[in-house]
């Protein structure tokens, strides 16, 4: 690559480098399509893009020129563009290995754009799925453009998808899995089911079998057609009810997003019965307790309609969390931004663990009993898990 390292080191010594792009691979079959280098504080983040994925690494400024030279040689790229606040530098490598270099002064509006880009990047979070990745379902859903950019009006949904993947990722990494059987109850249009399949297979390298279950035949048909279109061979969709569904394999993970009211309880109960090692649930439309609760001493919580509704929803999820603890799961209720932009933003994450001490399990159940006694009510998951087995 000639003296490219020396040239970049000289630029670094004279000016503040904000960005570099390494592009034009010598072969169309090259694994990496481009490399994007962004200044991040006093260091640089290097993003290496394949057709479907992006890989990140960080280097100190003193190592940047060396690393650019290494990547350009190892991956056979022919072009490097490098920007400072005032200039753009272009380096081209011919097929014969000859290097040519140019420098161009940036116009005032270009300088403003570079500074804005640098500021935005320093604030930007490293998402599990980031801009630039080729994720076909997200393009069809209108979240990404064809070149992998986030559609401005869909940025909230983009962040919500990544938030859900982050919650999964914490457990996936610690479990060190190479195979997962997943049931997604009440999958609906299934955009998140497709994203989870992509995440597990393409990003984490896990062999995943996923079944999406829903009651709408037209939705199931379209989702199966989409799975075939994307080449997602181990993702399929079935018509069926959450209550009493017979899984065709040993279930490792259960996902239930926005299963309405007591449908969430049946999903959680099935997951417990299957001994699923991971459960991720975002409840929705929690009417059951709101219609049932009454109290003699805490009428302040039931007098006002909106307070009663929200208290009933929170009480429902507290009961579910405790019952999962009773069933042998380490359970967390996490803040999660709902896809439908509603106040219901709690996600239940439950991970199977060895059955804990009997007294701690009994305490979790006792707390549920006291709450239901105070409000003269019962609850579906309690009835399925405890009452019918007593």
Please tell me about this protein's structure.
The mean pLDDT is 87. The protein contains twelve helices and 14 strands. With 390 residues, it is an alpha/beta fold. The strands form two sheets. Strands 4-3-2-1-5-6-7 form a seven-stranded antiparallel sheet, with helices on both faces. The chain has a seven-stranded mixed sheet with strand order 10-9-8-11-12-14-13, sandwiched between helices. Helix 1 packs antiparallel against helix 2 and helix 10 (305-326) runs antiparallel to helix 11 (358-374). The protein has helices spanning 4-14, 61-74, 108-123, 136-140, 155-175, 191-203, 217-230, 263-273, 288-292, 305-326, 358-374, 380-385, and strands at residues 17-25, 34-40, 43-49, 54-60, 77-84, 87-93, 99-105, 179-185, 207-214, 235-239, 253-260, 278-284, 329-335, 346-352. It folds into two domains: 4-123, no CATH class; 136-389, Vaccinia Virus protein VP39 (Rossmann fold, 3-Layer(aba) Sandwich). The radius of gyration is 26 Å and the shape is elongated.
Structural features:
390 residues; alpha/beta; seven-stranded mixed β-sheet; single chain; seven-stranded antiparallel β-sheet; 2 domains; Rossmann fold; elongated
């Amino acid at each position: 690559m000639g003296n490219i390292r020396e040239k970049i080191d000289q630029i670094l010594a004279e000016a503040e480098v904000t960005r570099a792009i390494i592009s034009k691979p010598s072969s169309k079959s090259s694994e990496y399509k481009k490399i994007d280098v962004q200044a991040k504080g006093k260091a640089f983040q290097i993003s290496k893009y394949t057709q479907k994925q992006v890989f990140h690494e960080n280097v100190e400024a003193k190592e940047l020129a060396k690393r650019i030279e290494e990547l350009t040689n190892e991956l056979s790229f022919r072009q490097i563009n490098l920007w400072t606040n005032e200039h753009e530098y272009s380096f081209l490598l011919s097929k014969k290995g000859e290097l040519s270099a140019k420098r161009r002064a940036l116009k005032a509006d270009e300088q403003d754009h570079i500074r804005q880009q640098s500021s935005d990047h320093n604030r930007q979070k490293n998402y599990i799925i980031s801009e630039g990745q080729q994720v076909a379902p997200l393009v069809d859903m209108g979240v990404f453009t064809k070149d992998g950019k986030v559609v401005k009006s869909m940025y909230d949904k983009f962040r919500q998808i990544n938030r859900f993947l982050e919650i999964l990722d914490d457990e996936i990494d610690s479990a060190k899995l190479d195979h997962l059987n997943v049931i997604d109850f009440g999958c609906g249009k299934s955009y998140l089911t497709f994203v989870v399949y992509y995440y597990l297979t393409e990003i984490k390298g896990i062999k995943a079998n996923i079944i999406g279950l829903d009651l709408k035949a037209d939705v199931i048909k379209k989702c199966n057609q989409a799975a075939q279109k994307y080449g997602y061979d181990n993702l399929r969709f079935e018509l069926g009810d959450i209550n009493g569904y017979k899984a065709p394999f040993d279930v490792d993970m259960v996902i239930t997003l926005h299963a309405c009211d007591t449908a969430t309880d049946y999903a959680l109960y099935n997951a417990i019965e299957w001994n699923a090692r991971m459960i991720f649930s975002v409840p929705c439309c929690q009417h059951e307790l709101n219609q049932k609760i009454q109290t003699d001493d805490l009428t302040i919580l039931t007098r006002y309609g909106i307070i009663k509704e929200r208290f009933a929803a929170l009480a429902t999820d507290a009961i579910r969390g405790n019952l999962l603890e009773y069933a042998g799961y380490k359970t967390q209720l996490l803040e999660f931004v709902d896809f439908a932009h509603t106040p219901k933003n709690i996600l239940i994450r439950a991970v199977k663990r060895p059955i804990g001490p009997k007294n701690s399990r009994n305490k979790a159940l006792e707390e549920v009993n006291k709450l239901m006694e105070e409000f003269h009510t019962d609850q579906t998951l309690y009835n399925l898990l405890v009452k019918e087995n007593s």
